Amino acid sequence: MHDAEICSNFGGCNCNKLHVINKSNGFTIVVINWFRGNKKCYFTILPTRIWEEFRKVPNFNEVDIEVAHKLIKKIAGIMFVELRKLHYNVMSRIMDMNEADILAGRAKSVSAKHYAMYEMDRMTEEYIQAWQKFNVNIPR
After folding, report:
1. Residue 35 and residue 56: Cα distance in Å, rounded?
2. So what's the pLDDT on residue 122?
3. Are β-strands 27-36 and 19-22 bridged in parallel, bridged antiparallel, or unpaired?
4. pTM reported for the whole predicted model
5. How far apart are CA 25 and CA 77, in angstroms?
C-alpha cells in the first residue's frame, strides 16, 4: 500500500490501483482489492492523519515490516496475528458480522463485499464507536 499508485476514478473501477476516500469525520477508506490465498482485503478504515503520515514515509519495505513486528511485540506484548484477531473481536462487538468479517478478510461472498462498499459511511462511524466502547480514542 505504501508505494501503490492511487486511482483518480472514484466511480468504483476495478483497476489494480488504490482508491482513497477521505471522509469528513477524519477517517479515510482505502479500497485495496487484494487477494492472497483465502484472505481478501477489500478495503481498510483508518484515521486520515495516520494514512497521510504513512504515505509520507520515504521507504517502507520488508525490513520496515519486520521492525514493526518486533516493536509491536516489544511494546504491546503481542504479535501481528494476535493484533488482527484483537481488531476482529473489537469490530464484531459493534458491527454487523458481515462487516467485521470483511474488515478481517473473511468475507463469505461477493455480496458481502458489495454490502460493505455501499455502507462505508455507516461502517466508518461504527468503527469509531467500536474503539470508543473500549475507551480507545483514535487520533484524527
Report:
1. 25
2. 84
3. antiparallel
4. 0.78
5. 31
